[in-house]
Structures are given as C-alpha cells and as structure tokens.
Design brief:
The protein is of the alpha/beta class and 597 residues long. The chain has helices at residues 38-44, 60-63, 71-79, 105-118, 146-149, 157-161, 198-201, 235-244, 275-285, 315-326, 414-431, 437-446, 465-474, and strands at residues 2-7, 10-15, 47-55, 84-89, 95-104, 122-127, 170-175, 192-193, 261-266, 302-305, 308-310, 330-334, 345-346, 354-359, 377-380, 392-397, 406-411, 482-485, 497-498, 504-510, 516-523, 528-534, 540-546, 552-556, 564-569, 576-586, 589-596. Helices cover 20% and strands 26% of the residues. It has a seven-stranded parallel β-sheet, sandwiched between helices.
Length: 597
C-alpha cells in the first residue's frame, strides 16, 4: 500500500516503508505436466468406460470375485445396451468393471443408480471417472509464488484456474503506472496518466494517454522537510503483475487472473498523488466522463487501489466510488500498513468498497496490516522479516531511478494483498458477469476460508479463489444466513462441531487426505434438514448424514466440482440429533456447507 500524508496544504502519497528486495534468479525448469485448456479438460473428464461396484461386507458379492456375483449388475448394464467385464478388485475389494465403450459420466451415473437399486447387497455403485492434471502454469517462477497455491496462507488458485482465468474482464490498476515488462505488456490495454501536477508526474508533462511509469524516486527533503531519499518503487508494475502477468509462457511469474486485461491509470508519482487525481481516475477507469480526458475505450469491471492514507473517507473519493459502483464496477482497496484500525484510513473506510487486510505465509495477520470492522476480507501480503521468499513475487524493473531492465522482486504489504483480491474478483466476473458489486463482496466473504492462524478483525476469512468462482456461478447466498467458521478438531462424531444457527453457511476446509469434518445439528420435530455442500471446483468432496447412533440416513456422492445435497425429515414428536459429514474423495481445499431447516 501507499499512504497519504499532508504536504504544503495538499494530500500526497508516500511509498510505504515495507522492505523491497532484489529479484532472485529464475528457477530452472517448470511443471512436468503440459498445461491443457480448462474447457477441454472438463470435457475429457466427462467420459469414462469403467464402473466401480462395491458389495457390502458379508454378502456373496463381496466374498466372490466372479461373473456370477455380478449377474444382477450385468443384467442392468445389458438393458442399457452395454457390456462389461470384471477388470479387477480394488483395495476396498470393490469390483472395477470395464465397459465395451466410453459413455458420458452423466449416463453412467444413471446406470449406476439402476444397478444399485437392483441388488440390495450392493453398498454403492459409481463411475470410475477419468481425472485430469490441474491447470498448473509452466512459468519458471511459479514455484516461488507460494501465495497462489499453499493451503495455509495461499489463495487456492489452481482450483479456480480449472474453470476461470478472468477472460473478458478489465481490471484498472490505479497506481504509479506500468513498465512494458515482457511478462506483463501483452495483457495491458489502453491506459491514462491522470497526474495533473508536473512536479509529481516526473515525466515532463501533465495528463496524457501515456500511463508508463518514468520512476518515482525522490531526493532527500524533496517531499517535505526531513524526508529521506527513495529509489523508484515500480509499484504499479508489481501490482499489475500479480493481477494479470502473462502466464503459461514458460517464463517468469503467473498472474491471478491471467486471462484478464490490465488498464493502467497513473495517479502516483514523486511523493505520491493527489486525492483529486485519484477520484478522477476512479471515475474515468469505470467508464465515467472526466473533463479533458478522452473516453475510456476499456471500461473496467474492477478498480484496484493499493494506496491510501490517514483520515476518514473524504467526500471527493466517496462520490467517485459511488459513481463507479453505479456503473457496475467493483472497487477493491488496501486496508493500510500501519498496524492500526483501518476505520481511520482512506479509501479503506469508504462505503461500498472491498477493504483488504494482509496475511503472512502462516495465514495469520501480517504484523503491519491494518484491521478493524471496516475490513471485509484478507489475502496474502507476505512478511519478509525472516526471508525475502516469504514476500509476494511479481514483475518489476531494475532501475533505481529511471527505468532499467525487466526484473522480478518480492514485496510485502496490503498493496500486495489487494491485487490478489482484485484478480479473484475478475475470475468471478468472468464466470458470471451479471454480479453486482454488492453480490461480489457477499460471495467473496461467504466463500472465504477460515483463518488457520490469529487474524483478529481481518474480515470474513482468507479469499478462496476456487470457492469464490463456484459461488459466483451459483449467484448470491441470500439474506439472513449466518456464516460459521469451521473449528478443528472435528474429525469424529464425538468431536463434531455444533451448528445452532439456522440457516447457516459453514466455511470449512479439507486440509489433508485423512481429514474429514463432522457437524452436529439438532433437528426439531416436524422439521426437514437440507444440507448443501459446495466443494472446490476441481475436487470431489462427498456429503453424508448420520443418526445419533451413527447409522447412515442419507448421502450424496456426485463427481468433481459438483454440489452435493441431502435432505432429511423428522417425522417424530421429539427433536433429533444428526451429524452432517464432509468426506474427501479427491483433492484438498475449502468448501461451503449450507444447513437449513
């Protein structure tokens, strides 16, 4: 983040004190897997030619491993116009059957239900699905971008990339401008230099259509009496790279929404930037009219503001934000780097924005991050006190004053957390462009995962990009729902987490292959419990409902990325204790569990 300070009767922005380190050498190699188009992957995974038939223990079908045991199953499959043979028994002693042709998973699920219905000895039948490698970028330094993929403090991006890359969405970055970095330039469109004062602009002229960053270095005493000299930050280039660096080019870093486009709007220069310029930039970037500026050919659906300063939200900025929102633009802002209440900073305290706090690699609040009731959500911002690699890696420039060569560097700050959220919003809007700014905020918060470490007053949780994209496709969560964070350990019925809110939305996660989550619910007489499980887009979690004695009452075991639902009616005269279980079939990550009665 950049912060506002008073200077000679005007507001100026100064670079935050967060440390900046030199770029590290590129890591050789990359992913061993070819990166495949997400749509093609999805289509490929919808066909299979194998079926899994599991008999209950103690039945003849479980004990035998021959065609006779599978006679009833074969009859059903024959009627469907297919033939199958026993291929093998798996580790659970289930029969893996080979069909004579590949069919859609949807059709095979229908056949599986018929097979199960025909034989009471069968425990379950399900398609033996063909899974595919996830959309892992081949960028050489992706391995250093822990903030994208690590389950503790990361954004859960790989699952989101399977279904959205942000294609068709424009994100405006209001910052120091940009450098035409080889790992960024192809995703830059349009742009404008909104800085009116030539002493601030540092490029020899006032407002124009050139948004490139000439550098924002200062000499000692230049900004105010006693101010220190500073090198050029290339801050806007770093922020833009996090949002939409060119990805899958076997070089450099990846971007959160690498299918999106960046609209650079230059508002920060030497010693910062004026509130009036920033407000005009918000208006222009979102498609509004600004006197003297040309019509913006690329109106942005997202405006990303990694800047701010002390003091509550001013009328000028709030009016600009209100205008942007009226045009359907989502405004994402940094909470600030002062380890203080964000209510005392602007634009973090403005209405209608998504205010972002920063977490470190452990998923707890970064030591510098602002906090408070105005904070909506958190995202990776890094903490480089122990090692530079704990920061956020993105595109930069090597020049200490004027531009040098392309480079990469680790930064830390809520400035770095904000573009993570801006990119996640672009992923959501690419899947559902009809979402309003308020719906985007609501879905981001309701799909966030619980903090794995202490992050008091950091908002609803850490943004979960994969869950947010799933939520975007499903639309709004509706009003009156209470958000409940999962509390570990809840791996057994005896340690089940009690959920009393109705309706409730549980934000949970499956952290390992051995993790499973139980929730205890009391169902009143005459009421019906509805449970809805939304897994990560690229993984398969299943939903089970048990009685107080552990008997299975209902279950839903649909495939990868599909929403499982179960219902159960209490027809008795007294309340029942029920246990809802989320069970991993494949993958790990965050999920949402809706409970209504």
């Amino acid at each position: 983040m950049i912060r506002l300070v008073k200077r000679a009767g005007r507001l100026a922005l100064l670079a935050a004190a967060a440390a900046v380190v030199c770029a590290q050498p590129a890591v050789a190699g990359g992913s061993d897997l070819a990166v495949l188009d997400a749509e093609a992957l999805a289509q490929r995974s919808q066909w299979t030619d194998q079926l899994i038939v599991k008999y209950r223990k103690g039945t003849a079908g479980f004990a035998r491993a021959d065609a006779q045991a599978l006679a009833k199953a074969n009859e059903v499959v024959d009627r469907a116009g297919l033939q199958m043979r026993l291929l093998r028994r798996d580790a659970r002693h289930a029969a893996v059957m080979k069909l004579d042709q590949r069919v859609t998973v949807t059709r095979l699920r229908e056949i599986a239900r018929a097979v199960a219905a025909a034989d009471s000895d069968i425990e379950y039948v399900e398609p033996d699905r063909l899974l595919q490698p996830m959309a892992t970028p081949n960028d050489t330094r992706y391995v250093d971008q822990w903030h994208y993929y690590e389950s503790t403090g990361g954004l859960n991006l790989p699952g989101a990339w399977d279904t959205s890359t942000g294609s068709g969405v424009v994100v405006a970055v209001l910052d120091t401008g940009y450098r035409p970095h080889a790992d960024l330039a192809a995703n830059v469109v349009g742009g404008y230099d909104m800085i009116k004062d030539t002493a601030v602009s540092n490029d020899g002229d006032a407002r124009d259509s050139d948004a490139k960053d000439p550098g924002d270095w200062t000499t000692a005493g230049e900004c105010y009496t006693g101010s220190a000299a500073s090198s050029s930050s290339w801050h806007g280039t770093h922020v833009a790279g996090t949002i939409a660096a060119v990805t899958n080019n076997a070089s450099g870093v990846a971007g959160v929404a690498y299918g999106a486009k960046i609209l650079p709007v230059r508002v920060l220069g030497k010693c910062g930037g004026y509130t009036s310029d920033i407000a005009d930039a918000i208006t222009w970037a979102s498609g509004g009219s600004v006197s003297g500026a040309p019509t913006n050919a690329y109106p942005a659906r997202v405006v990303s503001l990694s800047l701010g300063g002390s003091g509550s939200c001013d009328t000028t900025t709030q009016t600009a934000i209100d205008g942007a929102r009226s045009r359907g633009t989502v405004v994402v802002v940094a909470a600030g780097n002062s380890n203080a209440n964000a209510a005392n900073y602007s634009p973090a305290s403005c209405s209608g924005v998504i205010t972002v706090a920063a977490v470190n690699r452990s998923g707890g609040r970064a030591y510098y991050s602002n906090y408070g009731s105005v904070v909506d959500i958190a995202a990776p911002g890094g903490d480089m006190r122990s090692a530079s690699a704990n920061g956020i890696l993105s595109t930069l420039n090597s020049g200490s004053t004027t531009p040098g060569s392309d480079s990469y560097a680790y930064y830390q700050g809520t400035s770095m957390a904000t573009p993570h959220v801006s990119g996640a919003v672009a992923l959501m809007l690419a899947r559902n462009s009809a979402l309003t700014p308020d719906q985007v905020e609501s879905l981001l918060k309701s799909s966030a995962r619980a903090f794995p470490a202490t992050c008091s007053q950091c908002g609803s949780g850490i943004v979960d990009a994969a869950a947010a994209v799933v939520a975007a496709v499903g639309g709004s969560t509706g009003g009156g729902t209470t958000t409940v964070a999962e509390v570990e350990s809840n791996n057994t019925r005896s340690t089940a987490q009690s959920v009393t809110a109705n309706p409730a939305q549980v934000n949970g996660s499956i952290a390992s292959s051995s993790d499973t989550d139980y929730y205890k619910v009391t169902l009143a007489a005459g009421k019906t419990l509805s449970a809805k499980l939304t897994p990560p887009a690229s993984y398969d979690f299943d939903l089970y409902l048990y009685s107080s004695s552990g008997a299975t009452l209902a279950r839903s075991t649909l495939g990868t990325g599909q929403v499982d639902t179960v219902t159960y009616a209490n027809t008795g005269s007294s309340a029942l204790t029920l246990y809802v279980r989320v069970l991993r079939y494949s993958g790990t990550g965050s999920y949402t569990l809706g409970l209504t009665q």
